[in-house]
Amino acid sequence: MPLTLLDRLERRFGWLAVPHVTITLIVGQAVLYFVGYMGANGILPGGASIDRVFLVPSLVMEGQVWRLATFVFQPPGMIPIFAVFYFSLLYTFGTALETQWGTFKYNLFLLIGYVANVAAAFLGWYVLQQQIGPEGNEMLKLAAIPASNVFLYSSIFLAFARLYPDFIIRLFFVLPIRIQWLALMMWILFAYVLLRGDWMIRMLVLATVLNYILFFGREHIREWKQGHRRRSFQSAAKRAVSPAKHACAVCGLSSAESPRTLFRYCSKCSGQRCYCPDHIRDHEHVVDKEPVV
């Protein structure tokens, strides 16, 4: 069996894969969440802030390059109980993908998503710069528009939903719902954001979608082709087994082959004998012989 590109990459770079990388991401986010929460509530002295970990392209260009790495640990902005729920789901999704794909493929999925999101953040920032113009560059720097890592982790959710569409999530800890419907809602939200969002968010959504397509696009195309062939076969089989509603007794032309043809029945022929327009007046009448008594 020929090796795929992924197999060749794994043979060469598989030793670089980091096992249980999801746990590392969760621990980093949880620590920063705790620091940010304690600082926001005045528990830590000086009001500790986690703003310096966000990916802000304008600040990276000024030399704060650590943001390229630390933004993956940006914690979710939600109350503690929902943060715990978020971390538990991220652990479930990430470990399931690593188990299903293997460590190397899962690492590659995250790496491509990371690179795509970073590139999208800078591209979106560049487009915003062009829209504002030179006179607005200082205003853009002051705004310090951050690029959220939400879209990077959304790709993990979409990949999990693709592989386990019947997985049940209890929304608000009560309402059971299949994850495939939540994924559909996310795709709809992505479409809306592409139409109405700013360029930063648009680029991040495109990065997430392209990463998903890279890993699942071939499967979707194959399923679409299989579905198209199945529907074509079912349609042909239905036409083959279903009798034609009208069929010319001379040439055999049927209403299935020519649905617009006006078929007529001959009143001089015995029984219900149907003819096409070409043979309704040009055929030999068929009359059943009366039985001899």
Automatic annotation (TrEMBL):
Membrane topology: Multi-pass membrane protein
Statement: the UniProt record of this protein carries the keyword Transmembrane: yes
InterPro entries given in the database record: Rhomboid-like_sf
Cellular component, GO, one term: membrane
UniProt entry tagged with the keyword Membrane: yes
Record-annotated membrane-spanning stretches: 12-35, 77-96, 108-128, 140-160, 167-193, 199-217
Name this protein carries in UniProt: Peptidase S54 rhomboid domain-containing protein
Location in the cell: Membrane
Keyword annotations from UniProtKB, A to Z: Membrane, Transmembrane, Transmembrane helix
Organism lineage string: Bacteria, Pseudomonadati, Planctomycetota, Planctomycetia, Pirellulales
First-listed, main subcellular location of the protein, grouped into a coarse class: membrane
Annotated SUPFAM superfamilies: Rhomboid-like (SSF144091)
Species per Swiss-Prot/TrEMBL record: Lacipirellula parvula
